[in-house]
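Blinded run. Sample ID left blank on purpose so nobody reads anything into the name before looking at the predicted structure. Input follows.
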Amino acid sequence: MTEVYQVDLTKEKLAAMPADERQLLLLLGHAANEINVLQKLILMALQPTPELKFVDHVQAGQVFVLMRTLIGKLHEAWELFVKRFQSAPQISAKYLPKLNTEATTALDGLKKHFGKQSPLTRIRNGFSFHYHDKEDLVEKSFHDVPDDDSWHFYLSNITGNCFYYASELVVEAAVIKLANPAPNSAEPYREQSERAFGELCKLIIGVSGQIMTLFRQCMVGIVSENISDTEMSDPVEIVGAPSLGSIQIPFFIDDTEFKPKADSGAAPVGAVQS
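Blinded prediction complete.
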């Protein structure tokens, strides 16, 4: 059963807070929302193995696109915490002692992870939000991927159904190398990639959980400190909420109901027309 409680902060009460604490509260909630939505989308984009192999390629590529975005957001969320909480003496002195054991443990884990050369930071700087490729990673990865891999572009008369898989093939190889810069050279390429990808997934899940735990407790502390008479509604049950495992986001779509009639019969994007 899903229950939702509405907490009435009111703009008046938020306005009475110190500006730096109000801004931090709203930004923590903003970052947590983005991480939460991306996590759900990734889980919903995971599909059972289809009969057509190229469909499997495309669906896996879609998951990887979402995953790179989440990786970037996790790095940015940590930067938010460092700059506006940890490096702000008045805020850190006020709220760090109030964190519960779970949030303190999460913070310790995040410090340990981001205090060194974080794989998530390397991926964020290389591919999550940038296309400049200053380190020439695309070219290096192009040569690493085996000749017999799936070097395909999938084109369609529906623009939203086009997927440039060869691009993802190379970028995925580059991302995995950023996550695991010292691979076992004796291990076959595909086995090495699968293992490194699995380790990256575990890392993303762990860091996501730590950030969500820490941010929630920080927001609870800020609200409790500044708004003593917060009103909370009785729980509202969301009837018919589907289980996460029952929702699936495919890549290929039928856009007939949204497509202008004049566009029907258009040639696949990128196809050579006579």
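Unblinding after everyone has recorded impressions. The two ends are 58 Å apart (CA to CA).
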